[in-house]
């Protein structure tokens, strides 16, 4: 191994000496040439290791099982802020089932964060869907470290609520951007107090049977 490095150094120095006739450059080439392949190899290995190492947020997603409920909310809020989205964290009480308000009007997103030991049921979807208008939000989302029951998925599909399970947490940033780029469901208009009368007008002829 050492002889190979020395031989590579001598050959590189000789090539530089013949090409440039400079003793300084020849010595430099003789020193650098044997080490250059090793440096390139270590650089490539570092890039490969870095690509395979999960980021801070991906690692946090993997550690969601040991987070508290508040820590899980903080994690989701941090990911949303990393997307460049404004985030409002609602009070612990009186939040109408909405933990985070993400985005800007008129397309704000109401998010409920459920750090759960079992699949999340339809109650979470009901809460965030009911609380979204109270928080002036046009869209809804439930994020959990676990999964969702079939009933929760069916109800979410009915109301257009985004569901993010534990397996999707590493893609949470992209899913938030996708949700914010899509238009929210149409809100129902105000219901008039005055309903049209169903009585027959005196001038209207009676219909036969």
Structure description:
- The protein is built from seven helices and five strands, in the order H-H-H-H-E-E-E-H-E-H-E-H.
- It is of the alpha/beta class and 209 residues long.
- It has two domains: 2-43, no CATH class; 57-181, Trna Endonuclease, Chain: A, domain 1 (3-Layer(aba) Sandwich).
- The chain has a five-stranded mixed beta sheet with strand order 1-2-3-4-5, sandwiched between helices.
- A hairpin with a 6-residue loop joins strand 2 and strand 3.
- Helix 1 (2-20) packs across helix 2 and helix 5 (122-131) packs parallel to helix 6 (150-159).
Beta content comes to: 5-15%
Strand order of the largest sheet: 1-2-3-4-5
Would you identify the regions where 5 or more consecutive residues have pLDDT less than 50?
Answer: 47-54, 186-202
> What would you report as the Rg, rounded to the nearest angstrom?
32 Å
Pattern of helices and strands? HHHHEEEHEHEH
The average pLDDT is 74
What is the count of distinct domains?
A: 2
- The total count of helices amounts to 7
The CATH architecture name of the largest domain reads: 3-Layer(aba) Sandwich
Helix/sheet category: alpha/beta
Shape annotation:
elongated
Helical amount: 40-55%
Which sheet architecture does the biggest sheet show?
5 strands, mixed
The separation of the N and C termini measures 108 Å
CATH class of the largest domain: Alpha Beta
Q: Count of DSSP E strands?
A: 5
Instruction: Say what the CATH topology of the largest domain is.
Output: Trna Endonuclease, Chain: A, domain 1
Which features characterize this protein?
single chain; alpha/beta; Trna Endonuclease, Chain: A, domain 1; 2 domains; 5-stranded mixed beta sheet; 48% helix; 10% strand
């Amino acid at each position: 191994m050492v002889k190979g490095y020395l031989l590579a150094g001598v050959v590189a120095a000789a090539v530089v000496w013949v090409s440039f006739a400079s003793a300084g450059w020849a010595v430099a080439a003789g020193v650098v040439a044997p080490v250059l392949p090793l440096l390139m190899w270590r650089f490539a290995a570092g890039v490969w290791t870095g690509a395979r190492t999960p980021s801070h947020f991906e690692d946090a997603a993997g550690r969601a099982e040991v987070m508290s409920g508040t820590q899980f909310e903080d994690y989701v809020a941090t990911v949303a802020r990393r997307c460049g989205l404004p985030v409002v964290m609602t009070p612990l009480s009186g939040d109408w089932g909405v933990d985070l308000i993400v985005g800007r009007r008129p397309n704000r997103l109401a998010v409920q964060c459920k750090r759960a030991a079992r699949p999340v049921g339809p109650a979470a979807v009901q809460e965030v869907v009911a609380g979204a208008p109270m928080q002036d939000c046009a869209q809804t989302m439930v994020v959990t470290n676990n999964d969702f029951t079939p009933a929760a998925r069916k109800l979410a599909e009915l109301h257009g609520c985004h569901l993010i399970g534990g397996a999707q947490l590493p893609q949470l940033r992209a899913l938030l951007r996708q949700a914010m780029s899509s238009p929210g469901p149409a809100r129902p208009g105000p219901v008039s107090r005055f309903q049209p009368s169903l009585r027959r007008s005196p001038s209207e002829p009676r219909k036969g049977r």
